[in-house]
Specification:
The protein is 27% helix and 33% strand. It has 201 residues and is of the alpha+beta class. The protein has two domains: 46 residues, no CATH class; 144 residues, Nucleoside Triphosphate Pyrophosphohydrolase. The chain is globular, with a radius of gyration of 17 Å.
Length: 201
């Protein structure tokens, strides 16, 4: 079967779920649907992936200040998922139209107003794979995700500024503050796993 041949059928399924009120937040954004070997079969509306248990890819960026403190963001209180919780400097989905690098660049600008060339030492740190039940679709969903996380240093004098309305505010925290917030459940699960892997928290 040719790549993307299943896309029309997948999106008909997404529309049917939406009509029945069993879809996650509708984004008008296509995510890739791949087989177990990572080969792309088609694409589907983002709002349907967790209801159907389709594996997704995300990208996170952990940003440190030169003095070792860590930039964190508080998610907008109007976000459909994990509103008001704390997160890494940037975290976002890799859409079907993006390479990993393109997603990193786009999401870093949209969420933090930062351009990668202005940051120091941007490098891939590793991957985090996890799965868990999802509340989307009335609680019937399942989240399966691979996160590619990057790290960098945000130069002194350069501060993140949200561009898309999805971030409440940014703060600089010591590693001890980050550790305490993780322990108290203030970070999203994804951010806690990424920060733990990156910073040994």
């Amino acid at each position: 079967m040719a790549p993307d041949a299943t896309t029309p059928a997948l999106n008909l399924l997404a529309q049917a779920l939406r009509a029945q009120g069993q879809c996650g937040p509708w984004r008008d954004e296509q995510l890739a649907v791949c087989n177990a070997h990572g080969e792309r079969l088609g694409t589907i509306e983002r709002g349907a992936v967790r209801v159907l248990g389709i594996a997704t890819r995300a990208v996170h960026l952990v940003g440190r200040a030169p003095d070792g403190r860590i930039w964190v963001q508080q998610r907008s209180k109007t976000k459909p998922n994990n509103p008001g919780m704390w997160d890494t400097l940037m975290g976002g989905m890799v859409s079907a139209a993006d390479t990993l690098q393109q997603a990193l660049e786009r999401e870093t600008w949209e969420e933090a107003g930062l351009r990668l060339p202005a940051l120091h030492g941007v490098e891939l740190g590793g991957q985090v794979n996890f799965s868990r039940p999802s509340r989307e679709g009335g609680g019937v969903g399942y989240m399966v995700e691979r996160i590619d996380w990057f790290r960098c240093t945000v130069p002194e004098g350069l501060e993140p500024r949200n561009q898309d309305g999805e971030v409440e505010r940014f703060e600089l925290w010591s590693p001890a503050q980050v550790r305490e917030c993780i322990a108290s459940g203030g970070f999203t699960l994804e951010a806690a796993l990424v920060l733990g892997a990156c910073c040994g928290l």
